[in-house]
Please model this.
Amino acid sequence: MAGLQGVVKKAITLPCTVRPLSSGVPSAPFLNLAARAPAGHDDHHGHSAHGPRADVPPKWIGGVQKSSSHLLSKTYITPSTIAYRGSRTIHTSTPAKYETPKVPDFSDYKAQSESTNRALSYMMIGTMGVLSASVAKSTITEFLGTLAASADVLALAKVELELAAIPEGKNVVIKWRGKPVFIRHRTQDEIQEARAVDWKKLRDPQPDEDRVKKPEWLVMLGVCTHLGCVPIGEAGDFGGWFCPCHGSHYDISGRARKGPAPLNLEVPPHDFNDAEGKIVIG
Model:
């Protein structure tokens, strides 16, 4: 027992050389599979090449010293732990989910024939055309509506007057669109006088029939065609209207007969409402 006092015995804790990766593939960074068996070593593992083996510790890491009668020393060297920090790579034995994804098959959703697809295309084009035309029409209508006259202007666009309020042989002056309008209820003598004139020799040739819709009702704008003055009714050399500003004379049909006036008095658009006994101007 005294001879065993010089024996040095040390415990060695080796790190695990095999660990699984996150993909489940085993990794052994410290295992050298390319090591060769030493020369002259018995090839009982089936290795045919020669060289050092990774599973046989080399002589320099420790050893055993003993005499002819007893053990002198036994030495072990504990290697330092080396952390593996290499980059991880995908191994060829990874599961199929890590392989290149396959393109899905959409053959079940394809049209069975070209005619079916063409009909659908025509229907979509026609529908979009109808919708576009409807939107364009609505837009143009609203735009033109903003350019139309307002309600107060339209209210003045037409004026109604009861004919029974005008006695025969009298004039009535009303306002329409900011202008005076002469309405005369002519007698039968005035009608015959207006139509007896040779209208072809007048300054502005126009027969009386073209200036009235009903012979007894004469409707004219009360604006002189010379410089826009307002003539006086039942005056002048022809028993019609007279402009005192520049001396223009008009007959009982409102035609220019004398003075600087170049044209006859204008006849505005008008119509008669016989059911209600009214005249509508405008």
Notes: Residues 115-148 form one domain.
